[in-house]
Design a protein that fits this description.
Length: 203
């Protein structure tokens, strides 16, 4: 995939950056770190302008985030509760109050989750769905998403620019960061799942 991304960036420049960042936010396996660091490299050794790379990368990412926000918004809390009331929900021992608890939690920490989540691999894409489910104010969502995404983009594009020909070395450190975050999330998710199973099946 990396070779395809590099070829697209070399051939189509800003258009490729915009579209790839949009797709990355909808389909997380597309590596934003490759797009951004190589974009920074091209701003020095290619024909791209550093600031335009940041602008197109940020616009693409925000548009992609809005697509997932719309998915969550359209599904909505009511439809999610209908799924919970279905046979599948009963098999999984899900209850309507679970949705309300999740909604209350997101309402309490919504801006922190959306803003800081933009700098966490995987989370930075998927957080848009619960924001839509919670019917977070669209303008606030766009503002927080834009600011958080801009910070993430600026960091990686700047690192790619500074590293020059060694831009790929940056990917090693970003990959380590991503694995560390993923490990923490898996541990937290496992604890949450065990708590849920214990509460639903053994109480």
């Amino acid at each position: 995939m990396q070779t395809i991304i590099l070829d697209l960036l070399n051939d189509y420049g800003y258009v490729a950056i915009f579209l790839l960042m949009m797709m990355e936010n909808i389909f997380p396996p597309i590596p934003s770190e490759v797009i951004l660091t190589f974009g920074g490299f091209l701003s020095v050794y290619g024909s791209l302008n550093f600031y335009w790379v940041i602008i197109f990368a940020t616009l693409g990412a925000v548009l992609g985030s809005l697509c997932l926000y719309a998915v969550g918004f359209l599904i909505g809390k009511d439809r999610l509760e209908q799924i919970i009331d279905s046979k599948l929900g009963r098999i999984l021992h899900l209850k309507r109050e679970d949705v309300q608890k999740a909604d209350d939690w997101f309402a309490r920490y919504d801006w922190q989750v959306v803003f800081f989540g933009r700098c966490i691999p995987l989370v930075r894409s998927l957080i848009s769905i619960p924001a839509g489910l919670a019917k977070m104010n669209g303008y606030v969502f766009i503002l927080l998403t834009s600011l958080g995404t801009l910070i993430w983009n600026c960091i990686l594009i700047t690192l790619g620019k500074m590293a020059g020909n060694a831009w790929q070395d940056i990917l090693i450190y970003v990959d380590s960061y991503a694995h560390l975050i993923l490990g923490v999330l898996l541990i937290m998710g496992s604890i949450g799942l065990l708590y849920f199973v214990k509460k639903r099946f053994f109480n």
